[in-house]
Design brief:
This protein is mainly α. Helices cover 67% and strands 12% of the residues.
Length: 67
């Protein structure tokens, strides 16, 4: 995982697909054990959404490659 500083003073985490899956799995387990953690729930929602978008882009790229 790499962190990139943004001009606004924030940071963006850049990770590989396997790292994203590990993070999603770990957050899922944490949320199961701590269902009242609103921060963990929001983080899981964001990670899951980003992972779904990545999968959709990969499927589109694969379809274009075989056309």
């Amino acid at each position: 995982m790499q962190f990139i500083a943004t001009p606004g003073g924030g940071e963006v985490a850049v990770m590989g697909a396997s790292e994203a899956l590990v993070i999603e799995g770990a957050l899922s387990l944490y949320v199961l054990k701590h269902p009242n953690s609103s921060v963990a729930i929001r983080a899981l929602r964001e990670v899951s959404s980003a992972n779904e978008a990545r999968e959709a882009r990969m499927e589109e790229a694969a379809e274009r490659a075989f056309v």
